[in-house]
Amino acid sequence: MKLFGQKQKQNNQKQVPKPEAPTTLAGIAKLEKGTTSLADIIAPSSVEVDFNYIRVGNSFYKTFFVVGYPRFVSPNWLSPLIDFDHSMNISMFCYPTLSNDVLSDIRRKIAEMEATISSQAEEGKIVDPKVQAALEDALSLQEQLAKGVERFFQFGLYITLFSESLQDLEEASKKLTSTLSSILLITKTTTLQMEDGFKSTTPIGVDKLYIARNMDTTSLASTFPFTSATLTQDKGIMYGINEQNGSLIVFDRYSLENANEVVLGKSGAGKSYLIKLEALRQFMFGTEVIIIDPEGEYEALAKTLEGEYVSFTASDPVKINPFDLSGLYEEGENELGLKILSLHGLLGIVMGKLDAGEDAILDRGLVETYRQKGITADPATQKKLPPLMEDLYKVLLGMEDQTAKNLSLRLEKFIKGSLSGIFNQQSNFDITNPFTAFSIKALEEELRPIAMHIVLDFVWTRVRKSLKRRLLILDEAWYIMKYEDSASFVYGIAKRARKYYLALTTATQDVQDFLSTDYGKAVLSNSSIQMLLKQSPSEIDLIQKVFYLSEGEKELLLSSDIGEGLFFAGQNHVVMKVIAAPFEHSIITSNPQELAKQQDQISAETAPQNSSPIDSMSAVEKNPSENQTPVSNQTSPPPNQNPPDINTAPPQSPPPVLNKP
Ligand SMILES: Nc1ncnc2c1ncn2[C@@H]1O[C@H](COP(=O)(O)OP(=O)(O)O)[C@@H](O)[C@H]1O
Ligand SMILES: [Mg+2]
Predict the structure, then answer these.
(1) Which among 280, 562, 593 is the best mutation to test ligand 1's pocket, defined by most ligand atoms within 8 Å of the CB?
(2) Is the pLDDT score of 197 beyond 90?
(3) pTM across the whole model
(4) For labeling, which of 29, 56, 193, 343 is most exposed (least CB within 10 Å)?
């Protein structure tokens, strides 16, 4: 009884507001009538429907439907329509059809056609070639459908042209009809059905005409009008996946007019990752790789590939003398002159900006320094032992001029004290390993550009000695690109690299610095491949201007994920996602979490294998968060040798032993 009473009560409560609802709705309706709605604002003042057109506001519209299609189509065969130079709306309606229904229809149709042919043959007439062709098509379609290779669709294609004047509309209509007939499309106007035609080509997905034609999957697929550029060659290495159509971006940079590449992206966008991946894959195809690594990121990669990892510090035994000459003689090139030019660049960083007077004195000093060692423009003399930084210092000090003395003072700290170990020694190193990385991370920030310049010059000297397919990587190039003379040196390499079968990769996060000098821009225009990864808002405008990006591409670069961006090669560009295989990822990642995990694994591997269960449990106890994941974690490498005793042992039983004491 009580329950009943309660229910009634609820009912009563519900009934109370009911009579109010209609009054509220009526009130709202009344209120809406008095206000301006969105439809009021966008609706045209009048619509006039004629036999041959429909006028909406001030514009005239005319709709066509397609009745005849070509027998064979090739990919993107509708491009003449898509590229037709007039305002228009195009609608395509695809209706999937059940294959069984179609199959029985086809069977009947085939029987009809066979009957026609045999009766014609019996009457002694020549068989109609049209029927013969249709029969062949039907038979092959029947086979494809029965096998499930193809599916069956009905396809409707409508086009509405529009124009401000009726005359223009008529002219455009004639042009469209003749354009379409050139690709064997037969069109008709929707006479007396202009309104339906108009509605069917507005983006509301309603087909009021329903004039469809049979099509199989292949034909339908090639009708799809938006074919995007693909960057796939039959040779080269894979760079990533084309995000627009899922195809692979496979490219051989050495096949382009130059093999240089510029990678731009904000810090953490995945530049170094991309470069490492490329270096790894190029290396596997026999390319020699040389890396200048200011962040010390390439060590794991170099070690895995059994490459050489040279660390550039005072205590490191490897020395490079910036005064080294290549000992090469090339027709029309003054080796010593080029070297002095490069040294100007280097000393520009070492001593700070030089004015014209200082520059002239430095030039004299450099020539004199080489002369004192018996080295002149004559190539025969250039095999002699080159001078050192301190020889230049002495020459400058010995000059009468006060400016020269000042210059020598600015040089002093590089030949005395700790820095002399780095910059003031004869070279004792040669690039013999096909994978060599120079780390300059241990140097102070202000010395890095100097070291970078020296290494770059050294590498350039060596590279020219023997012709091999090489890749030279300059990560964080902004360190030296902000110095005009160094930038000019990098540009010189970019320009001449092709001659030496060398590919130069420059990566930078600081687009402003990179593109602030003309040399930076010139390096960019001398690079056939350009990669744009995620950009920061402060630099996107510059990027947009330099690369002529559309608004959409600009948005994409602002919001892209790690390893995602635009890949430019020559005239084409596509949206790319860089993807590495798990084994590649483990070598090239610089994610500290993953690196720590790898280190743990290595130390676990090297630790004694026969540890007691209690020992291994205490390790688990120390790391409770990691303890839970590995059992279910499928992606972590199979724990074969090392922590299996941790992972496979049931975690429930031993802990009480540990907890007891
Ligand atoms: N395509 C990618 N897939 C997975 N991880 C990536 C990818 N690209 C970069 N990473 C990770 O993102 C982080 C930043 O990448 P990094 O190449 O060092 O950036 P940048 O050199 O642009 O500063 C690293 O931890 C790296 O492992
Ligand atoms: Mg980096």
Answers:
(1) 562
(2) yes
(3) 0.62
(4) 29
**DSSP 8-state code for residue 361:** H
448 lines ligand 1 (CB under 6 A): no
User: How far, in Å, are 113, 135, 172, 651 from residue 100 at the CA level?
Assistant: 20, 19, 42, 57
For residue 292, give Cα distances in angstroms to 169, 297, 526. Answer: 63, 10, 20
Q: Is the CB of 590 under 6 A from ligand 1?
A: yes
Give the H or E element holding residue 435: strand 435-439
Architecture of domain 321-426: Orthogonal Bundle (1.10)
Mean pLDDT in the chain?
83
Per-residue exposure over 30-65, b if at least 16 CB sit within 10 Å of its own CB, e if not: eeeeeeeeeeeeeeeeeeeeeeebbbbeeebbbbbb
Q: What is the DSSP secondary structure assignment for residue 228, as one 8-state letter?
A: P
CA–CA separation, 364 vs 372, rounded Å?
12
Could you tell me the distance, in angstroms and rounded to a whole number, from the CA of residue 271 to the centre of ligand 1? 7
Residue type at position 173: S
- In a 13 Å sphere around the CA of 170, the CA atoms on its Cβ side amount to 4
Which residue in 72, 79, 92, 71 sits closest to 211, CA to CA? 92
pLDDT-derived band of residue 534, with 50, 70 and 90 as boundaries? very high
Can you tell me the distance from the alpha carbon of 501 to that of 601, in angstroms, rounded to the nearest whole number?
40
Question: 228-311+433-594 adopts what CATH topology?
Answer: Rossmann fold (3.40.50)
> How far separated are the first and last CA of the chain, in Å rounded?
63
- Nearest residue to 195 (alpha-carbon basis) of 87, 67, 53, 43: 53
Nearest CA to ligand 1 atom 16: 270
Report CA Rg, the chain.
Answer: 37
Give the burial class of 28: count Cβ atoms within 10 A of its Cβ; 0-12 exposed, 13-18 middle, 19 or more buried: exposed
Q: 446 is written with which tokens?
A: 């202000």
223: tokens are 């009708």
Task: Show me where the domains of the chain are located.
Answer: 47-221, 228-311+433-594, 321-426
Q: How far apart are CA 135 and CA 568, in angstroms?
A: 48
Total residues belonging to the chain? 661
Whole-number pLDDT of residue 190: 93
Query: Do the beta carbons of residue 428 and residue 310 sit within 8 Å?
Result: no
Strand positions, DSSP E, 243-395:
248-251, 261-264, 288-293, 308-311
CA 54/CA 49 separation, integer angstroms: 5
Q: Convert the pLDDT of each residue in 420-443 to its tens digit.
A: 777 888 888 888 899 999 998 888
- Give me the helices (H) in 201-334, please: 217-223, 271-284, 299-304
pLDDT of residue 627: 40
pLDDT confidence band for 225 (50 / 70 / 90): low
Residue 360 has pLDDT above 80, yes or no: yes
Closest residue by CA, ligand 1 atom 23: 268
Token digits of residue 657: 């032993």
Question: Is there a contact between 72 and 223 (Cβ–Cβ < 8 Å)?
Answer: no
- For residue 229, what pLDDT is reported? 58
Residue nearest to atom 9 of ligand 1 (CA): 270
* pLDDT score of 634: 40
Residue with the two structure tokens 């439907």 = 65
Reduced to 3 states (helix: H, G, I; strand: E, B; else coil), residue 156 is strand
Cβ partners under 8 Å of residue 34, min gap 6 = none
